[in-house]
């Protein structure tokens, strides 16, 4: 039988025939070319997958964390929700805790997609919207983006649509937190699952954009490893510590160090995701990482109080609120580089 690429055929008259289906060739690509978006639930709205969420929630019990028996979400509060009490708006403890949980989910998703938007702006500005996405050997460049939005992104500019969808949905979810909106726990839980799905899209946009543009390893099982731990830092050299999640600013530091022959003369180290991502910067093809990883958020105070860093640079997410106060105790300069964390410091962007 010749290869069938698309369409249908009837098997109702066949008897005692075994049919093996190897692969369905070209059907998805053809539909995508004709219709632009492919899938059963393309870009679902906040209730688009509600039936499916209900099925999952029938099978699996949600766990709320943290639990809170008071609410101060509006100016009627603070309301005591203990026992069988309700808030002035009528919400009960179960509903409020499901709402709290959903808020935690969309706060995290916003942090990730806010980072993604910042990074995408920066990379499109630098490399252009037509810059191709390059993530290594795969037929599926962006599994989350493709599954949720029904579109296969090919360029940096193609990621804008996915991120715009995430941003719109996050606004709709945040609106549900307001007093006088959703009241039932199960629908907050369903909305929390929607927020989790959006989070995966936002995170994927961030990572495939930086993998494509910043010469990070691409599907490379032999990607170079970096040194990790406070013990790897040579405190005899000047030490620059970066903390956060957004590698964009640190790429400028690494480039500056190389341009001025400083790479071996100073230590660049980091805490949290910025640390991981800066060790991936320009290591495609096996180049040695240009920085070291100190550890996670949990090591921030220990590293600062060790007195080892000479300068601290922070960007966004997982940066302790007291970094400036702690660093000030030891006379360490702190530079904030992202408008999500400014610590009340003067803006010196235009200094010579
Ligand atoms: S949202 Fe409801 S429970 Fe919360 S403070 Fe306002 S009235 Fe009270």
Describe this structure in words.
By secondary structure, this protein is α/β, with parallel strands linked by helices. It has two domains: 32-213, Carbon monoxide dehydrogenase alpha subunit. Chain M, domain 1 (Helicase, Ruva Protein, domain 3, Orthogonal Bundle); 230-336, Rossmann fold (3-Layer(aba) Sandwich), CATH 3.40.50.2030. Helix content is 40%, strand content 7%. It contains ten helices and seven strands. The strands form two sheets. It has a five-stranded parallel β-sheet with strand order 5-4-3-6-7, with helices on both faces. A two-stranded antiparallel sheet has the order 1-2. Helix 3 packs antiparallel against helix 5. The radius of gyration is 25 Å and the shape is globular. It starts with 26 loop residues before the first helix and ends in a 16-residue tail after the last strand. The model has no long low-confidence stretch (mean pLDDT 92). The protein binds iron/sulfur cluster. Iron/sulfur cluster (SF4) binds next to loops.
* Spatial extent as radius of gyration: 25 Å
Bound molecules: iron/sulfur cluster
Low-confidence stretches: none
- Average predicted confidence as pLDDT: 92
Structural class: alpha/beta
**Total count of helical runs of at least 4 residues:** 10
Q: Using the coordinates above, name the CATH class of the largest domain.
A: Mainly Alpha
Largest sheet: 5 strands, parallel
Number of domains: 2
Number of DSSP E strands: 7
Query: Which strand order spans the largest sheet, edge to edge or round the barrel?
Result: 5-4-3-6-7
Strand content bin? 5-15%
What is the 3D shape?
globular
What CATH calls the topology of the largest domain is Helicase, Ruva Protein, domain 3
CATH superfamily of the largest domain: Carbon monoxide dehydrogenase alpha subunit. Chain M, domain 1
User: What is the CATH architecture annotation of the largest domain?
Assistant: Orthogonal Bundle
Distance between the termini: 74 Å
């Amino acid at each position: 039988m010749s290869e069938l690429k698309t369409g249908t055929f009837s098997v109702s008259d066949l008897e005692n025939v075994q049919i093996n289906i190897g692969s369905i060739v070209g059907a998805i690509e053809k539909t995508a070319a004709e219709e632009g978006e492919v899938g059963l639930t393309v870009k679902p709205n906040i209730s688009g997958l509600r039936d499916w969420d209900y099925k999952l929630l029938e099978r699996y019990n949600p766990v709320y964390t943290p639990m809170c028996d008071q609410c101060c979400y509006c100016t009627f509060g603070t309301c005591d929700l203990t026992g069988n009490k309700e808030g002035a708006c009528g919400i009960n403890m179960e509903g409020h805790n499901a709402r709290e949980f959903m808020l935690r989910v969309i706060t995290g998703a916003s942090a990730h997609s806010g980072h993604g938007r910042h990074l995408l702006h920066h990379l499109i500005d630098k490399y252009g919207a037509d810059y191709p996405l390059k993530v290594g050997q795969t037929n599926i460049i962006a599994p989350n983006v493709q599954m949720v939005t029904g579109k296969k992104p090919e360029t940096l500019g193609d990621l804008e649509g996915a991120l715009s969808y995430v941003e719109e949905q996050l606004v709709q979810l945040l609106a549900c937190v307001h007093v006088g909106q959703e009241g039932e726990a199960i629908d907050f839980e369903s909305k929390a699952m929607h927020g989790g799905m959006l989070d995966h899209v936002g995170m994927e946009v961030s990572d495939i954009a930086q993998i494509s543009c910043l010469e990070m390893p691409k599907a490379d099982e032999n990607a170079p490893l970096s040194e990790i731990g406070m013990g790897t830092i040579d405190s005899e050299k000047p030490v620059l510590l970066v903390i956060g999640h957004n590698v964009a600013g640190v790429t400028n530091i690494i480039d500056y160090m190389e341009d001025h022959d400083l790479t071996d003369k100073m230590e660049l180290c980091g805490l949290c995701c910025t640390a991981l991502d800066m060790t991936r910067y320009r290591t495609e093809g096996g180049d040695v990482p240009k920085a070291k990883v100190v550890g996670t958020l949990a090591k921030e105070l220990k590293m600062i109080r060790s007195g080892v860093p000479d300068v601290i640079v922070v960007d966004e997410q997982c940066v302790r609120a007291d970094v400036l106060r702690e660093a000030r105790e030891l006379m360490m300069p702190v530079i904030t580089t992202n408008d999500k964390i400014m610590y009340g410091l003067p803006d010196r962007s235009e200094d010579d």
